[in-house]
Amino acid sequence: MIRLTQAPFEPGALLAEFSRGRRETGAIVSFTGLVRAEGGDSEALELEAYPGFTEAAIERIAMAAKARFSLQDLMVVHRIGRVGPGEPIVFVAAAAVHRRAAFEGADHLMDYLKSRAPFWKKSIGAGGERWIEPRPQDYEDAARWDERAPGSEPAS
Amino acid sequence: MIRLTQAPFEPGALLAEFSRGRRETGAIVSFTGLVRAEGGDSEALELEAYPGFTEAAIERIAMAAKARFSLQDLMVVHRIGRVGPGEPIVFVAAAAVHRRAAFEGADHLMDYLKSRAPFWKKSIGAGGERWIEPRPQDYEDAARWDERAPGSEPAS
Amino acid sequence: MARVLLFGPLSDIAGWRERTVDPAPSTLKALRAALSAEDAALGEALARPGVQAAVDKILVRGDATLANGAEVAFLPPMSGG
Amino acid sequence: MARVLLFGPLSDIAGWRERTVDPAPSTLKALRAALSAEDAALGEALARPGVQAAVDKILVRGDATLANGAEVAFLPPMSGG
Q1: Fewer beta carbons below 10 Å: N end or C end of chain A?
Q2: How far apart are CA A41 and CA A85, in angstroms?
Q3: CA-based angle D3:B129:A27, to the nearest 5?
Q4: Which residues on A lie below 8 Å from B24 (Cβ)?
Q5: In chain B, what residues touch D8 (CB-CB under 8 Å)?
Q6: Smallest Cβ distance to D81: which of B50, B56, B117?
Q7: Domain boundaries, given as residue ranges, for chain A
Q8: DSSP secondary-structure letter at B37?
Q9: What is the ipTM, given to two decimal places?
Q10: Which domain holds residue D64?
Q11: Would you say residue C80 lies in a domain?
């Protein structure tokens, strides 16, 4: 389930919704990303998506992750529009039979969302507005999942 | 916060409690482990802890994980006594500035809890009672975190 | 008629986010040329590496023909969420 | 007086989970010998590899002196949660 929302969300309510009635699930991993307030210094974020296109792109990667990690189910909720300091901005949950698959599925999906998902993001503060690119760390995190030649070592 | 509980818990309520007011947290990862119903074939689990000793052992590993992964906070809730099919048995949450630390902290703590924490567990069904040992996979998962000589390759 | 959508910093450069071009140019290349003729700064921004184009919400590489009523989106490098 | 606690399969073997030994043996070794003299099957189970002992909730290796009122727990290999 992929959902873009202008309204704030509460991660606990989403996990309650996702975990209800999962009698054949052994492991659920959730990730919540928040905009840190940085003691009042941080700025609001403004997220732009391309409605239809953005959900479809996330859906494709979610389906691939589901197959790759044998996940039973996935949930992605992402704020769009203005997100204030201290507010949750993204929630991902993965359900699987065993815990390693659930961890890897959620971790993988977050790396994708942070580096390659079709969002355009700017920070808005007293000093004006500034468009944000992914951090180098975000690209490195995402590259951990790229297919490797057989026998090559995984990146640490 | 380490909590052993006889009563069932709802993972969403725990995540709501853990994530409330985290204005300086950038990432929260939660893990929920459930007893799979296996279409009615699964048996109840009975978990025994050593009150005081078990919490202290988990607290020590939680403090070490907090330092190792620069976590802001950790929560561990574990059922004891009888846990029925389909019910959550363990909940772990980790809060950090960045997402990699939160993922690794929760993952690490779960590997420890599943393989080395002071619980004794039996399955109870029509066929009688049977004490359970960790799966070989649980030991392997836990060994991923053991300190390695500098320059050695991480296990995949 | 073609609808043109700009995302991220592209809309700041152009001063608009969405407009129609009527009649629709027959190809993406012709649309780029028309936009560039009106606004050289936008034309230059659209030609930057990493700027992708989607026609009717499908990413296209190189040129593409545009049907009447096509929706063309120009997508600068994505920031992620 | 010493309190003795058995966990996991050990209590199934002994048929009890908690008891007192009065007066308290002076050492863990002496307590093991006393329990073993009463119940050979339990004595053997306590000597198996992987069975740890805790005195007043602290794991001990080898022998240890027991104060009056000590709590001694025998812990078979832990299953994890």
Answers
A1: C
A2: 9
A3: 100
A4: 36-39
A5: 48, 120, 131
A6: B117
A7: 2-18+25-132
A8: -
A9: 0.88
A10: 2-75
A11: no
Which residue in C57, C73, C80 is closest to A119 by CB distance?
C80
CATH class of segment(s) B2-18+25-132 = alpha beta
Touch criterion met for C and D (3+ Cβ pairs within 8 Å)? no
Q: How far is B56 from chain A (nearest CA, A)?
A: 24
Q: Check CB contact under 8 Å for B121 and D57.
A: no
Cβ contact C–A (≥3 pairs, < 8 Å): yes
Contact D80/B117, CB-based, under 8 Å? yes
Place of tokens 């009615």: B40
d(CA C50, CA C75): 8
Cα A79 → chain centroid: 10
Q: How far is CA A108 from CA A69, A140, C70, in A?
A: 10, 12, 34
- Alpha carbons A106 and A62: distance in angstroms, whole number: 10
Q: How far apart are CA D26 and CA D68, in angstroms?
A: 8
In angstroms, the Cα distances linking B124 to B34, B82, B85, B155, C38 are 16, 9, 11, 35, 77
A88's tokens: 């949750």
- Contact assignment for D7 to B113 by CB distance below 8 Å: no
User: Using CA of residue B61, residue B65, residue B71, residue B74, what is the dihedral sign?
Assistant: negative
> What is the spatial distance between Cα A36 and Cα A34, in angstroms, rounded to a whole number?
6
- Say yes or no: A29 contacts chain B, CB-CB below 8 A: yes
Residue-level pLDDT, tens digit, chain D, 81 residues: 999 999 999 999 999 999 999 999 999 999 999 999 999 999 999 999 889 999 999 999 999 999 999 999 999 998 887
Q: Checking phi first, is residue B88 left (phi over 0); if not, alpha (psi -120 to 50) or beta?
A: beta
pLDDT along chain A (156 residues), means of 10: 96 98 95 89 88 95 95 97 94 97 96 90 85 75 66 42
Of the candidates B114, B142, B137, the one whose C-alpha atom is nearest the C-alpha of residue D78 is B114
Q: What is the CATH number of the domain that holds C47?
A: 3.10.20.30
Contact D81 B120 (CB under 8 A): no
CA D21 to chain centre: 11
> Rounded to an integer, what distance in angstroms lies between the CA atom of residue A26 and that of residue B44?
14
Mean pLDDT of chain B: 89
C9 touches chain A (CB under 8 A): yes
Could you tell me which of A36, C12, D74, A44 has the C-alpha nearest to residue B24?
Answer: A36
What is the rounded CA–CA span in Å between residue D41 and residue D14?
8
